[in-house]
Amino acid sequence: MTLADEIRAWAVTRGRAMRQALGLDLRDLRPMGAGKLASLPTDVWNAAKLTEIREEQRPAFAGFLNAAQDVTRAHGRELVVWESLRTLERQAELYLAGRLLPGKRVTKTVSGGNHLWGIAVDLVFRTPDGQPKWPHDAPEVKPWYRGEVLPIAAAHGLSSLLLAIGIDPPHVELPYAARPAEVTGWHRRIKAEWKAFVARDGRLAP
Q: CA 172, CA 176: separation in Å to the nearest integer?
């Protein structure tokens, strides 16, 4: 068994145990894809993605999304939750790309992202033909997206990474200081186990 295979097996076993303990969806969730988005009304799509959010935090994310959608529609656009819960299996697969597996590096962490715990969303805009468009690829929306949409997050106890530290425009999350103790406990456990893999192969370093 290669190290990549070992990591995949660890991610499946540990990821399922973690999601079960935290009351999260046990499916191997992956983004539903642009084709699926084109076939569903925005509100139906977003409602499905919100079910992936940890139940305790779901009202905060729903409240933010509803208010943010009102602002977005006033500008003639529609806001879509592209990704919410991301499984450890998927996160590990993304991280291995460009390191132990062919492909381009697309993420800097396995254990640190709030998507793993069902307490973060990535937002995109829906184009007229039903395709996703990332906020940083839509210069025409940047002023009001940053000035009107993202500030709504704070009113619901959430944080925009763009407003907080100037990175990742699509990302809105529960702040680290507000994370439940059980989430913090699992984060520490996953982080420690991942460090053991990194110690075995320097290519796994960020």
A: 12
Report the C-alpha gap between 175 and 159 in whole angstroms. Answer: 6
pLDDT digits (tens, 9 = 90+) for 28-56: 555 556 677 888 899 999 999 999 999 99
> Which residues sit opposite 171 in a β-bridge?
122
Report pTM.
0.90
Any idea what the Cα angle at residue 165 is, between residues 107 and 106, rounded to 5°? 10
Rounded-to-integer distance, Cα 170 and Cα 141, Å? 12
Token digits for 8? 């995949």
Per-residue pLDDT tens over the stretch 126-156: 998 888 999 999 899 999 999 999 999 999 9
Q: Helices 42-50 and 58-74: crossing angle, nearest 10°?
A: 160
Mean pLDDT of 93-119: 91
